[in-house]
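Researcher: Next entry: Molybdopterin-dependent oxidoreductase (Photobacterium phosphoreum).
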Amino acid sequence: MTLSRRNFLKGSVATAIAANGLTLFPAGKVFASDTITIPSATHYGPFKAVVKSGTLIGVQPINDVDPFPTEMLTKGVLSRTYSDTRIKYPMVRKSLLEDPLGDHNPHLRGKEPFVRVDWDTAIALTAFCIARTVEKHGNEALFSSSYGGWSHCGVNRPQTLQGRFFNLIGGQSICAGDYSAGASEVILPHVIGDMEVYSPQTAWEIVEKNTEVVLFIGCDPWKTNRVEFRVADHSMQKHWEAFKAKGIKFVSINPQQTYTDKAVGSEMINIRPNTDTALFTAMSYHLYKTGQHDKAYIDKYTVGFDKYLAYLIGDEDGVAKTPEWAEEITGLPAAKIKELAELCVTKRTQIAAGWALQRADHGEMIHWSIINFAAIAGKIGKPGEGAGFSWHYGNGGMPASGKRMPIGLSQGRNPITKTCPVVMVSDMLKNPGKSYTRDGSNLTLPKAKLIYNAGNNLLSHQQDTNELIGALNDNIDTIICHEPWWCATAKYSDIVLPTTTTLERDDISSGGTYSNSKIYAMRQVIEPVGESLDDYEIFSRLAFMFNVHKEFTEGKTMYQHVKTSYEASDATEDFKTFWQNGITHVSTPAAANSFVRHGDFYADPDKNPLHTPSGKIELYSEALAGFKAKGCPPMPQWIPPFEWLGNAKKGQVHVLSPHPWMRLHSQMANADVNSHESVDGRQIVLINKKDAEERGVKDGDVVEVYNDRGALLAGARITDEAMPGVIYIHEGAWLQLDSKGRCNSGSINMLTSSQPTSGLAQATSANTCLAYFKKCTDAETPNQAYTPAKVVKSAFKVDIWSLQLGKRLKAVSAEQGPAQTPGEKLFYGSCTLCHAAPHPSDFTYKQWKGITNSMFPRAGLNEKDRKLVLDFLQKNAKKG
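Model: Predicted structure:
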């Protein structure tokens, strides 16, 4: 039983819950008259909340919709709701509260206590800090770190509501790209005309009928399909089990045996991290050299083979990319590389590659090299074959309904066009206005002075934590945070506005990232804990201060917005019935079961060209050649990473940071279920037996992992499933620094680098990381990351009049731009829920046409809506 669990049971509310039983209620259980069930939904699945006298006492899964509910739903949701890490009242860091017009002592962030204030004071101080920043530096200085949207699975997410508010008062600088698939989402539209990483996969039925081999590459569907950006319904496992029963062969290229590998019995091929590009380059070479490449396919469906071939055979650099060449890089025997290439070309093979591969130095190369291999083998577009990059997410393979789903409030167009790639946040803070390139454009970083963070744990997400904290303290005047829990981002903020959890607000969501076959009511289950407010109410109050309340709310409550959103969908049940039942199903056409990824292109490439410049698969890209982006050649090439086992010093190991089993990034870290991820309250580190023995480490020991960027303490878990020379620390542990600056909790980003992948995508290279580890003998305290921030009383009262709010707010009020067109509303309401809203000018119209092929089904737009959005994008896209 973990420390957080013991603390949880100390609380009076939690004690009452415990007395009534912290048990899983079976789906058919009937309750007494004093107990009610309320349907709702989370990232972890749909459920019925069991509520007694206004208190949540359990979570009842809905088995006919979610056949495999996880403990994150059945136990974790309850545990974290009443956790003692809840922020119940508005909080202001002591220095800011006592001298709002003076020095806020930013170097004391994370160390100085907070003071509880009332909501009027909190809103006044928030409005003052925003207005003063605009007054001094302009709206560009307001920077949103709220790109993620993962805190809440409804359509009205915190970062969407934030965008709506700030865009009404003149805009804000925002993040670009994402941590999940940032390299591939930029390069693949040039290569195959679609982001691919967020695309529907070939339908399950087609795979079951046609596929002979599934090749996993850094891909673990069993784990990563446990959570979803909207509502997980865990409909994947039965299909993989059917594939196994049919006799489909599974091969896994991975330094670690995954949950999926164990479930389906994969043949394991352990590879050195960050070397997959060399592997697939050599496999392509082998097909060509042995005459097994599909020349007719290459001629009909691709361009650039001659240039790529010159690289393969060594005309460019004098080095033939043979399997023997790749053996020295990957650690795989040349004979195995040849065998793997021949297996893929002679069998109907579906390649399933994970996103984690491209979170590496030169990460743009890996998925591209897989596409080149699959094209040279003549696979892409054939039933049950080809390369897919979203099998591990959103039940990839589920047939899509094609129906319109509920849409959220529109963010509206942002008057500020300055963006910062997520991995460059620290660079932006240290070098405001610095020039950089992204996707062929020459840009400059925003000059940020205030960070607004709603629904995102910046201190967990961002690489190189020490660099980030230093940059924040040296350059940012104010950090404002919406947060239900005392995570690190809250503890390092100046103003903390306590927000409700998913269970304490109304919203609406849909089921199946790609299937869009269900709509869920996210009904409020309990009253807000403490004085917490939902994000809509907080931004509504701020909108009132800035005289844009009418525009922000449109005169509606959130419940009314939810009703309007539902009624605009293709659902057939009336809203009252839907809201009462909590779910409605949307039909899926039978033809969807025959969907083949790029099948139309394969059937007729002239009639159905890809949205690339050539209309074909680009094995070599003339567009990228013209960009001349640093570190990104115009075809997939093996480029040694800045850190890898090939240049490791004695004693160093490669550190990988995969997703956890019982968390969604840092969510659930403060819940009981995090005990699955911890040893004595610290994040686990998976270590191969040989590496552990060499360093005198035993299972359960506290281990110190360290490099030049930082250090952390973790709990050793010794395993045969990880290859020697590679250790695993799951991302998402909360941060707590000891007196030596080590994270006492095991937060992986103490070690990772903020160096971008290349000058093309400027994406994260978090999985390019070397470090040392040793047994720790000087841990100072138990892990204290999951304890609340220190709160003190202060006799100081803010003189609201001294802030001159009326004058300041009037001075910074923005002129309202033209009314949004219908297509613009749909774009900012449906198509930009995932991460920060992109600007229409981020891509050319041809690129948008390719990207929206995947975006529209996920957004759940019908044909009429799609045309409206495309018309808007055509008028506002990047020229070229």
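Model: Note for the record: Residues 183-399+594-627 form a domain with the Dimethylsulfoxide Reductase; domain 2 fold (CATH 3.40.228.10).
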